[in-house]
Amino acid sequence: MECSWISAVWLSVPLAVAALLLFFMKSVHHAPPKSRPPGPPGWPVIGNMLDLGTMPHQALYKLRLKYGPLIWLNLGSVGTIVVQSAKAAADLFKNHDEAVSDRKVPIALAAHGYSEGSLAIKNYGQQWRALRKLCAAEFMASKRINDAAHVRRKAIDDMIKLIEDEAMASKARGGRGEVDMPRVFFLMSFNLVGNLMLSKDLLSSNSEEGHEFFDAMNKVEEWAGKPNIADFLPFLKRVDPQGIQRGMTRDMGRALRIAAGFVQERTRVQGLGIEKVKDFLDALLEYKGDGKKGPEKFSDRNIEILILGLKDYK
Fold this sequence. Notes:
Layout: H1 2-28, H2 56-67, E1 70-75, E2 78-83, H3 86-95, H4 114-117, H5 126-138, H6 142-147, H7 149-172, H8 181-198, H9 208-225, H10 229-232, H11 244-272, H12 280-286, H13 300-308, H14 310-313
Antiparallel strand pairs: 1-2
Helix pairs in contact: 7-8, 9-11, 11-13
């Protein structure tokens, strides 16, 4: 009796493994073969990840010679089309633009509903079109850019002074005057867009909330830039093995609380009727749509997420 029970257990193990592999094979090859471009067969669970090797651009070029300019790859359970010719890209984006307009949202950027309010990654639709139109008219229009020439001049002057200060500090430490230019450019662009959107010098020594906001947004960018294995193997989402989702939820929540303070402060100023040069935050708060080709207005949460979009405009 004991022997038969042990035999049954050992028999169930390979059956369970086979069933699990079958499940992942179905999830990986979810698109019907006739509706997708050709591509190399993938392994269960990991798909074609191993086909990319350590030099993905060279591996993809070799795959093109065999499968053509359009290749279908399964990266984990994520179906991916690789386009490797200008003609194919032009045809794809000209004749099938709506079908390819959306992108898979990384799990980290779904925190606090960020993907539903960001111009950079929100799905194509009426609200996205309304937001793009507003950005084009109020943030990127030539008149707005020309009117903000003095803001850009000040941002450049501040950047030059920062470079001089950091070079002197480096020499004082015994260095040769080295300056971390990527960090300097990041600080300048962050402060510039903050002035254009919020009329705030976020990195001023007098702006405690600005420095806290910068720190939180810096963390958000770090989390967003880390490759997350759960994006390719969704069954790991609940486990969050790299802690990316937890970290993003914490730091994006911190940034959103500060952005909410900016919105509340501006709402109070508008209520007092104080005249000022309107910026992009004013345009967002005063937006009125028809409700047919976009929202009637943007919610406070939408606006807070758009403020976090400082990183998308840099």
